[in-house]
């Protein structure tokens, strides 16, 4: 199973101000629309997101949402403080690896992003980590 850094998610009450900062100060730009995650708006789990990139790694700027875990029914809340995300080519193998390591995780499936099977878990300091695989949707 291969992991590659895919994006960093920062949560803020000031998404538009953060967007301007990363664009103006760090000169980050727009991502190819084909590379953007197809958010599942029907579930209402993710608000208005700004996507910027350096050309290799995406930065997702999302509204802070401390109640996301309650609405989603998942223990790990990726929208409280943000998270770092890796893409894998074998999500089932990665979940088996987490199980073998004794690391608890929330399996979000494709609830938040259509076509991305996502799992979220905490590192020893409480930072949220996402691992996802692009999957075919029925």
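Sequence proposed for the structure above (138 residues):
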């Amino acid at each position: 199973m291969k992991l590659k850094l895919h994006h960093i998610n920062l949560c803020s009450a000031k998404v538009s101000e953060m967007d301007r900062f990363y664009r103006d100060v760090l000169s980050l730009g727009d991502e190819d629309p084909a590379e953007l995650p197809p958010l599942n708006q029907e579930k209402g789990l993710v608000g208005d997101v700004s996507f910027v990139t350096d050309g290799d790694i995406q930065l997702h700027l999302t509204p802070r949402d401390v109640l996301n875990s309650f609405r989603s029914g998942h223990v790990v809340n990726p929208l409280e403080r943000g998270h770092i995300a890796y893409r894998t080519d074998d999500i089932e193998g990665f979940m088996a690896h987490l199980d073998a390591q004794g690391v608890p995780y929330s399996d979000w499936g494709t609830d938040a992003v259509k076509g991305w099977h996502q799992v979220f878990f905490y590192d020893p300091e409480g930072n949220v980590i996402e691992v996802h695989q692009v999957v075919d949707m029925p």
